[in-house]
Amino acid sequence: MKLALFDLDNTLLDGDSDHAWATFLIEEGVLHPDEYHAKNEWFYERYKDGTLDIHEFLDFQLAPIARRPRAQLDAWHSDFMRRKIRPMILPKAPELIAKHADAVTAIVTATNRFITEPIAAELGVAMLIATDIEEVDGVFTGKPRGTPTFREGKIERVTEWLAQLGHELGDYESWFYSDSLNDLPLLERVTHPIAVDPDATLRAHAAERGWPIISLREDDGASRPRRQ
């Protein structure tokens, strides 16, 4: 059996959907730029340097969608997909996903399900393992539900999903594609860890371990700097 797992942000996308969502809400006037932009950038830097407190970030990131009518959120997200996400989908991303047509596939992302579910659908990947959000009567509370799909949490969530299928990770020949040092725990558990346009830390680790390093951005396979 074969299993192909894909990180989303800065892997299949030329950018970060979490960060782009906050920018979108600032542009819409939903969030005050002076208050929100600097903190959004601060959390993004913490993610990139591997020091992010995921629970602190989720408190910040989920607050704007808490207690808002779902119809309003869905309308915003539709515009968000058009303006921010579709231009960020790397042209080679669908090709990479199609390469694993004979495998069980999933996107595994720390970004919350509200943001990422339509993106996974756009990419044609039916299974999404994302950070879930607590809901009461169909309204988001602003709190995560269950284990965030971040760092070691990705292993836990993938393990839970495969158990529901009656399997475990070791049953599969497995691939995981990621750009981030934060994904080292899961990368070290799969048969074929693949660094995709990696950050400096992951690039060095991949080179040391002999992992393949690929690019979805350049025809010659050489990574250019990632869009921030």
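(ticket continues) Second input and output from the same batch:
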Amino acid sequence: MNRELALKIALAVVGLLFIALGFPMVVFIRQNPALSMQFSLYVTLGIFLLLAIRDPSASRSVIAFTAWSSFAHAALMGTQAVRNMVERGELIGVAVLVIIVAVLIALAPSKQLPESASHSNQLHLH
């Protein structure tokens, strides 16, 4: 399996996972409005990840944002769980986010040269 196909599969899995948070978002809207608000951001991000499947190179920013914001969230949530500020069960969420970060960073598309620059480089090589 090539790297781009693996990235597209990862984007689909993470995108669908984030969109699936739409159900608890609606369920917890009255009991825990802050959690529902957070889930709304993930649901929205999930939609953009699914859109990124068409052209991952053109969607480098959304992929990087997903990875690094998930890292920040995991670091904060993990710290809170270890310090008993939230339930230890939250460490499961931390593990999921760390896996998402690792996969997206490992598969992230590299920056490509603009078409005109790569074309002029090819002309100079011949």
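Agent notes: Residues 61 and 67 are 10 Å apart (CA to CA). The helical segments are 3-20, 22-27, 33-52, 60-82, 90-107, 115-125. Closing as not reproducible unless the customer responds.
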